[in-house]
Automatic annotation (TrEMBL):
It is a multi-pass membrane protein. It comes from the Eukaryota. This is Small subunit of serine palmitoyltransferase-like protein. Pfam families: SPT_ssu-like. InterPro entries: Ser_palmitoyltrfase_ssu-like. Keywords: Endoplasmic reticulum, Membrane, Transmembrane, Transmembrane helix. The chain crosses the membrane at residues 36-57. Its main location: endoplasmic reticulum. It is found in: Endoplasmic reticulum membrane. It comes from Aspergillus pseudodeflectus.
Length: 117
């Protein structure tokens, strides 16, 4: 009995939130196709923002901490020197060599197939 009451309260709360969303953004006036397009764009935008926050915010906070510590103490912080940043995936010499070798192999393969045509 209690479970049904909790489930009904949850459904009522979700319906209220959907109603508030539709009234706040005036989605209730749109046709179903327009609603789909609007909701898709909104979901895409929110997911891109959350992905950017997840990927770039930790490194950004680390850089800000490094600047603040430098301004306060006058030297490079010890903590940030041992933490890898997202930039190491792009600027590491080992990965650059691997990318260069992969590109070189792909170019050689493409060049070998061209004379056959």
């Amino acid at each position: 009995m209690t479970f049904l009451w909790i489930a009904a309260a949850l459904v009522r709360w979700v319906r209220l939130k959907i109603y508030q969303y539709e009234v706040t953004f005036a989605v209730y006036m749109l046709t179903p196709t327009e609603k789909f397009i609007f909701n898709s764009l909104l979901l895409t935008l929110i997911s891109m923002i959350l992905t950017a926050i997840y990927v770039y915010l930790p490194n950004h906070l680390r850089v800000i901490y490094g600047h603040l510590y430098y301004y306060w103490a006058g030297e490079r912080p010890f903590v940030s020197s041992g933490i890898a940043s997202i930039g190491t995936a792009f600027y590491d010499s080992g990965s650059q060599t691997l990318m260069y070798e992969t590109a070189q192999t792909a170019a050689a393969t493409a060049q070998a197939t061209v004379p056959e045509l």
